[in-house]
Design a protein that fits this description.
heterodimer, A: mainly alpha, 2 domains, 0% strand, flat, B: mainly alpha, Four Helix Bundle (Hemerythrin (Met), subunit A), 74% helix, elongated
Chain lengths: 108, 206
């Protein structure tokens, strides 16, 4: 019984060790990309992709959301993603402002 | 004594409604707080993204991100030590949980000092809330608001870690409370992992 419990703890520690190694590797890749001569949307897409991978790892394993009840996980994920998605209305106005600053044309 | 009192006395505890989602109420409260905090941070990042996208020339002031790399390693390490503390508390290892929480709090304190050092470096280059030597005035305001909000969380979390560790040692808090602090600390670490690419790595000087 005790050995089975110890074995379970070892497995748990192994899982967390893998998560931390993944986090460090992803972070190192981000630093590497930061120093590469990548511009514009490519840089944003790559950085955010790796940031999302880190988020999934942290939320599921380190914040233990993965071990909560399925209905609670759905509640947290859908509600948060919905609000984050609705925040993207800023982009049209941001591009309008950029166009106006570059060309002087368009609604002020 | 009335009959009503006698009837109530027969039941030692009144029937309680089951917590929503069948998780402890304190943990649910922490998750709801984190969800609202995600939205606040997202609003800061959205404002930053709006300004950066709308500016034809955005400053790239970070010649070296060594300090930021050290801060990130400390944050990831403190996330690991907090997890160890939470597991020790679950295993009823009170001394171990207390020790690892103090180590986590010390890491948070060092992180805060490095963060202040980073800010002082920016200030010495002339970056203020409303001016900077490179162009868009909003750069300073965006930089200080995002990193400042993170710093506020981390320094607050460090104080909370000390308080919870001492109260846990004194027997007032239990393993569930350590788990809740663990969720918060992992969250502030996650926020930092988002801030590093968005604020620093996308603006490395070339």
């Amino acid at each position: 019984m005790a050995s089975a419990e110890g074995q379970g703890q070892q497995q748990g520690i192994g899982k967390y060790a893998v998560v931390y190694v993944c986090l460090l590797v992803v972070m190192a890749v981000q630093f590497f990309i930061g120093y590469r001569n990548i511009e514009g949307s490519q840089l944003v897409v790559r950085m955010l992709t790796f940031a999302v991978i880190e988020t999934i790892l942290v939320v599921l394993f380190l914040m233990n959301l993965g071990s909560e009840k399925r209905v609670f996980v759905k509640f947290v994920v859908f509600f948060t993603l919905f609000v984050l998605a609705t925040m993207n209305y800023i982009w049209t106005d941001s591009f309008r402002l950029l166009l106006f600053r570059l060309t002087g044309f368009g609604p002020s | 004594m009335s009959e009503a009192h006698l009837t109530m006395g027969a039941h030692t505890a009144p029937p309680m409604e089951a917590p929503p989602f069948a998780i402890p109420s304190k943990k649910l409260a922490m998750w709801l707080f984190i969800m609202s905090d995600v939205m606040t941070f997202a609003a800061c990042v959205a404002a930053y993204a709006f300004l950066r996208n709308a500016a034809p020339e955005w400053p790239r002031p970070f010649h070296s991100v060594t300090n930021v790399a050290i801060m990130t390693i400390i944050m990831i390490a403190s996330s690991a030590t907090m997890l160890i503390a939470s597991r020790a508390a679950r295993a009823a290892d009170k001394a171990g949980a207390f020790r690892w929480m103090l180590i986590t709090a010390a890491a948070g304190f060092v992180f805060t000092l490095l963060h202040i050092r980073d800010w002082m470096g920016m200030m010495s280059q002339g970056v203020g809330l409303l001016q900077n030597p490179w162009g868009p005035a909003a750069f300073g305001a965006a930089f200080y608001s995002i990193t400042g909000f993170s710093l506020l969380h981390i320094s607050g979390g460090t104080i909370a870690l000390f308080v919870v560790a001492i109260r846990y040692q004194g027997g007032r808090y239990n393993a569930d409370d350590i788990e809740i602090v663990n969720i918060f600390w992992q969250f502030v670490g996650l926020v930092w992992l988002f801030i590093v690419p968005v604020v620093y790595l996308m603006n490395v000087a070339r």
